[in-house]
Design goal:
The complex is a heterodimer of chains A (111) and B (111). With 111 residues, chain A is mostly beta strands. In chain A, 0% of the residues lie in helices and 54% in strands. The chains are: A mainly beta (111), B mainly beta (111).
Chain lengths: 111, 111
């Protein structure tokens, strides 16, 4: 079951904050966040394994609400380098070695 | 030091031709993957190998045939190329499910 990301696209000015949401209609046991810059490969950002877990990476952090079956990625004081497409992924319920990616959220930061 | 490498980076070819893409990883990971990313940026898994053994084979036309000569290499051969095969193909490897390291991608254009 493909996770659903929202919004589909965001345009911000440098320094503004953004939130990207990822939700699933099925139980989530883990959420995986990736960023793909234009013309490049996706890069792993972080994995959240437990309900209620929060993680941070510089000014990018994420939370995982297992009960609500959703995760949110927070980008604080966004920088130009944050531009790209953000994907959340969840592991297939039937086989835990297969990740299913959402359709992505395109983030564009303006100077 | 390149972690996951792919060749070629670009591939332009005519319909009906056969082509191969090669992938190598020097991370010591046991699992390798092939993904297809279409023009809408949707990342879809095609195949997965664990220590040379095929473990994931999604609904992919049998014109696509992966081969893993050893656990550091995963190649993709495509027969009778079609227009719809135009996409970016990413190789990836992982040791922890969901934490994947992607290669730079091969941009395939079928004319």
């Amino acid at each position: 079951q493909q996770p659903v990301q929202s919004p589909q696209a965001v345009i911000l000015r440098e320094g503004e904050d953004a939130v990207i949401n990822c939700s699933s209609s099925k139980a989530l046991y883990s959420v995986h966040w990736y960023r793909q810059k234009h013309g490049e490969a996706p890069v792993f950002l972080m994995i959240l394994l437990k309900g209620g877990e929060q993680k941070g990476h510089e000014k990018i952090s994420a939370s995982f609400n297992e009960k609500k079956q959703q995760s949110s990625l927070y980008l604080t004081a966004s920088q130009l380098s944050y531009s790209g497409t953000y994907f959340c992924g969840t592991l297939d319920m039937n086989r835990d070695d297969k990740i299913i990616f959402g359709k992505g959220t395109r983030l564009h930061i303006l100077p | 030091d390149t972690a996951v490498s792919q060749t070629p980076k670009y591939l332009v070819t005519q319909m009906g031709n056969d082509k191969s893409i090669k992938c190598e990883q020097n991370l010591g990971h046991d699992t390798m993957y092939w993904y297809k990313q279409d023009s809408k940026k949707f990342l879809k898994i095609m195949f997965s190998y664990n220590n040379k053994e095929l473990i994931i084979n999604e609904t992919v036309p049998n014109r696509f045939s992966p081969k893993s000569p050893d656990k550091a290499h995963l190649n993709l051969h495509i027969n009778s190329l079609e227009l719809g095969d135009s996409a970016v193909y990413f190789c990836a490897s992982s040791v922890i499910p969901g934490t994947q390291y992607f290669g730079p991608g091969t941009r395939l254009l079928v004319l």
